Amino acid sequence: MIVDEIEKNTSIKAEDGDYYVDGLLYCHKCRTPKQAKIEVFGKIRTPFCLCKCEAEKRDREEAEREKEEKAKRIRELRRMGFPDSELQNWTFEHDDLKNEKISKIAHNYVENFRKMYKQSKGLLLYGTVGTGKTFISACIANELINRGFPCLVTNFSRLTNTISGMWQGKQAYIDGLDDFSLLVIDDLASERDTEYMGEIVQSIIDARYRSGQPLIVTTNLTAEQIKHPTEVRKQRIYSRLLEMCIPVEVTGQDRRKEKLKDDYSELKKILDL
Known about the structure:
By secondary structure, this protein is an alpha/beta fold. The chain has two domains: about 1-55, no CATH class; about 80-260, Rossmann fold (3-Layer(aba) Sandwich). Helix content is about 50%, strand content about 15%. The protein is elongated, with a radius of gyration of 29 Å. The chain starts with a helix and ends with a helix.
């Protein structure tokens, strides 16, 4: 009869083997009470409660739900953050550490991101073609996404072409980039070199500056070209970038050429050339 009453009024179930001590129901597995004794307005009540093993089960289930919700959020952040889906796989786990200095800087930036964010400081990664600037930027973004920070990794050509093709809402689109805690823009100076495109680039950078959020930019420009551009409009853009970002030179051999060489050697073996 008592079992029937329990099942009718609560989700806590009396199971075979459960027993009573001093009028309280006890779990036969963990031997802890399924009821508590409390006084309410002078009367003793015995409301049901979770025994130890049920409480631990509920904690595990809640932890699993939270883990799945976090994984779902990270998948969504990664989908939103990488218009080029290939870059989703560019992570620190795939870093060959050929440039240990740059890898260390990238790791340090991630570990100190809250401080960098508060100070609105990003990175300006410059160097010759194929040295891994895009890769290490994507690694930073991927790791920050793993930690729950919304990031966007794109490039100047994509942004300028998208914005130039819009009839209206250009500023709203640019302002929408503020939704990301970190904005990574690849290949500065790869966009079409016109005054109009330069104005778009300046609008993007100025908007990021006003938002007070960090920006990572990569470019094949040299330090001399960045510090002493000949055109006035570029002077404004590069000066602002140097104010917002810590310049870091990325050196090394052209990894693309190395990969092409390795791929060609492998193909020669396969084809017995």
